[in-house]
Amino acid sequence: MVFHSEYADVPDVELPIHEAVLGHAAQYGDAPALVDGTNGTTLTYAQLDTYHRRIAAALAASGLRKGDVLALHSPNTIAYPAVFFAATRAGASVTTVHPLSTAEEFAKQLRDSSARWIVTVSPLLGTARRAAEIVGGVREILVCDSAPGHRSVLDLLTCADPEPQIDIDPREDVAVLPYSSGTTGVPKGVMLTHHSIATNIAQLNPFIPMKPGDRLLAVLPFFHIYGQMALINQPLSHGATVVTLPRFELDQFLRTVQDQRITALYVAPPIVLALAKHPAVAQYDLSSLEYIVSAAAPLDADLAQACAARLGLPTVLQAYGMTELSPGTHLVPLSAENPPPGTVGKLVPRTEMRILSLETPGKDLGVGEEGEIAIRGPQRMKGYLGRPEDTAAMIDADDWVHTGDIGRVDADGWLYVVDRVKELIKYKGFQVAPAELEALLLTHEGIADAAVIGVYDEDNNEVPKAFVVRQAHAHDLKEADVMAYVAERVAPYKKVRRVEFVAGVPRAASGKILRRELRERERA
Questions:
Q1: pTM
Q2: 220 and 320: one domain?
């Protein structure tokens, strides 16, 4: 059967994303749009409106054209949204880059996306330069702050050139190009159009209506589609205030909630765990909080309730989606009274869902039955950049996106995500592709074979564990050696955190690693 949203349809939003989000910025005037949580620097809506237009003019004057790709490589700052929307106003697509990427990882994304412009921050400039050198063809590297030999975004604000007038087709033109591993494999560029993102904002609004006076703490990274939607697109389109932090440090996070009187948090499960259990929480006044939303990875129902009870909230709301869906498909409404524990919510407007049998391909399942979640709606991606076969494997001929997640729906329409078909590891909300780590491990001269799966640590975080077969001459290879080898070559969130030496890796006749056998062995 096909499950439908119980909410009234919302119309397609046929606007460029900068108009969908900042189209009403001028009317909010001197209301604070963005606040730097580390030093209190504030950008008003009027300033954000003016600044992003001036930056767009300067980028266009420098040669940025429609169809170009700009790589935005930065932690959360108050400059990030201004640069993002300036680039889209100038007609570019923005590929968002993890600030902890190594130069090699960054270079792969630059090459795959054909990005010719980079905007970064001075502490990350070395990585950006090395990535640009590896790839070649990057026209300019700018910084959001200041660095010798590089133009600053601040310098662009004085540009007197006319604002670019770009003809954007919201349904066809790509606004943002985040990288996702999808259900399997290496990271791929996800083509999200202006229409898909702008319409998803409208789809999510009935669940948690944002308004002037709301104050959100942005510790989720802006480069991640969850952070973009929840902490840039939704709040800035409704006059709310976003307080930014560049990274999660518990005491700074708690102090900012207290001092900035934060009303809403969008987080991933590890932060819910800290709020539920860490003794430091008791030292701060968090009474301004009105709700918390957790997404990006599964959240244990008991943990959610423990967090809510400690903070005096009715519950911790959950949401569900994926980068390929702009990202939202399900959310627990703020108005819901006693939503069932563990649910990730109900279907957003104009979104359909099927639960597909894992045993019989194409067979629909009904209420209470567990199967793969498939989604259809206007928020779906255009496809994977330059990868038609991967796109076809993800989106079928009838436009259903096969998520790779296993779920069930109860009689009242609440969705529960119970497992994943896909083999991705989700470490603190970040995607880690086992195949990428396996390929890296096999470059070690002392490793004959390797397989990687996700296991859970003592804090209930999913972490990469490597099963390693030593080469005959490497009998003294140790766990620490393997972990150090990987850590030197990948971003911190991708590090292998456990190693087990084995006699052999289980494989099918085709050579495919049988990770299911390793997971069963781990559970045993």
A1: 0.87
A2: yes
